[in-house]
Every structure is written in C-alpha cells, then in structure tokens.
Amino acid sequence: MIYEIALLPVHKQHIEQFKRVFAEVAPLLQRATGYDGHMLAKGIETPEHLNLIVRWRSLNDHLSFEASEDHRVFMLGLEEYFSAEPTVYHIEGAAFITGEQADQSNAFGS
Fold first, then answer.
1. Who's near 56: CB < 8 A, 6+ residues apart?
2. Among 49, 54, 95, 100, which has the highest number of CB atoms less than 10 A from its own CB?
C-alpha cells in the first residue's frame, strides 16, 4: 500500500468553490482501480494549501489513474482553482507508532 500526497495550492478566495467542485469530481477518483480511500484537508498554518492524501494499493495503480481519461476530467474540473502547480509525492504505507510501542524498528518497514 502507498499513499499519494498532493499539496494543492488554491486561491484563497476560491477554497470553498474548490471543495464543492472536488466533491463533484471525486467519484472519478473513487472508481479507479486500486483506490482505497482519501482525505482532503486544509493546512492549519496555510489554509490556502489543501492536502489530498490518497491511499492506493500500488504505485502502478496511481500511475494508471494518472494516465486515464478519468484523471484528465478530474483535473480539468480543479485546475482553474490552483494558484500554482500542485506538488505530488508518494510514501509507503506503514502503521503509526503509538507511545505504547517500545520497538519502533517497524516505522520504516523493517
């Protein structure tokens, strides 16, 4: 499992519109092969930066979605609200370490 983390800079005056449009195009994301959930959240220190975190079964599943017509339509609905180019990167899925866990060797998939 991997997580796609997309930092989405949105014009301040269009944040609410962006969230409404995102809700309209989200089904295109949700029906993608390998999609396993997402969250969209405003930054606390920088509310004009929305953070989209998508859980994918594999990197290939995400890359396949990016190459699809559904992705093109998904982005077409959102791109007018961006104040700059989004930044996207991926991390490997790992469990959160809690204060009760003494052994943190699994934090990096070890």
1. 1, 2, 3, 4, 34, 35, 36, 62
2. 54
